[in-house]
Design goal:
71% of the residues lie in helices and 7% in strands. With 325 residues, it is an alpha+beta fold.
Length: 325
């Protein structure tokens, strides 16, 4: 549709809709349909500018999604590396099997403990013999110097304070020589994930603002280039809402297409990482599971982006039309 044809159509629209007093609902619905179609045709009439605008918005929306994807899988990686790692309790060398079993039962009664496994010195020696560099040197030993070890499995998601309290109690038990714990590592990972969560929220806010500004500036330029047409429509009795409606739909189209592009970019990232992730999972014997973004989020992004586009167009068009009044 040429600019002159579109202008004539816009001038004819008020007569078909706002002056149709006999069927206000039908005329309202008719103008919404016309506005949606006209705004889409207007975007198609300038493909280069439209594609560039959608591309900028799509990249802005894809960045926080990609960061959220990375952050959600850092936690999975932390679990695979031992975020809830077993606490190893080394008993003194004079402790015998009966003492180790008795102490294991006491530890199992502690809050926050899921299970306790007793590892005897012979099992420890067998594990060392399988490690590279130890097999030859172990043959020269006359006696087994390794102590009994209690492997304490804490509850998943045990708070840092509770984990520290558990470690302190284990260290104070009679017959315990050394407690090997990764509590500091867990606290650092939890703190890092907390910073990441806050960063994602900040990025979402910043890039949502960027989408509003891009759509708003695009609509502002469009309205400025059509000041004369808007003036003619107002002389024919068109209200501000009537004039503003096509620009609101333009903002919706911009946001919707940008949201779809953002989802496509994130899915492309997941596809590109699929093969390296499979290799990494094989290294960790299948304990590492990397997940993509949830389906509900992927479906919600285009609609949220469409709302942002509508909001940006709504704010700027209302301000521009008041100035033109």
């Amino acid at each position: 549709m040429s600019a002159s044809d579109e202008t004539q159509s816009m001038m004819a629209a008020p007569a078909r809709t706002e002056r149709s007093h006999g069927r206000p609902v039908a005329s309202w619905r008719e103008h919404h349909g016309w506005s949606a179609g006209a705004s889409l045709r207007r975007l198609a009439s300038k493909p280069v500018g439209t594609v560039l605008t959608i591309a900028v918005m799509g990249l802005a929306l894809a960045l926080p999604l990609a960061f959220f994807l990375l952050l959600s899988n850092v936690q999975s990686l932390g679990d695979a590396l031992g975020r809830n790692q077993i606490i190893n309790v080394f008993l003194k060398s004079d402790q015998v099997a009966s003492n180790a079993q008795l102490l294991a039962k006491q530890v199992e009664q502690h809050d926050g403990v899921v299970s306790v496994t007793v590892k005897n010195p012979q099992q420890g020696m067998e594990e060392l013999s399988k490690m590279q560099g130890f097999s030859d040197s172990l043959h020269v030993l006359d006696d087994n110097p390794l102590p009994f070890v209690l492997q304490v499995q804490p509850q998943d998601g045990l708070p840092a304070d509770a984990a520290n309290h558990l470690v302190d109690d284990l260290r104070g038990m009679q017959g315990v020589d050394l407690v090997q714990d990764s509590g500091t590592w867990r606290q650092r990972l939890d703190a890092l994930l907390g910073v990441g969560d806050r960063t994602v929220l900040i990025l979402v806010a910043l890039f949502a603002l960027a989408v509003l500004l891009v759509v708003g500036n695009t609509v502002r330029v469009d309205i400025t280039s059509r000041v004369e047409e808007i003036g003619v429509l107002k002389l024919m009795g068109a209200s501000r809402a009537f004039v503003r409606r096509p620009y609101l739909y333009a903002g919706i189209w911009y946001g919707l297409f940008a949201g779809i592009l953002a989802v496509g970019l994130v899915l492309a990232i997941e596809l590109a990482l699929a093969e390296p992730v499979v290799r990494l999972s094989q290294v960790y014997e299948g304990t590492l599971h990397v997940d993509g973004l949830p389906l509900w989020l992927l479906l919600a992004v285009p609609f949220a982006a469409a709302f942002l586009g509508w909001l940006g167009a709504r704010l700027v068009s209302a301000w521009q039309l008041r100035r033109a009044a």
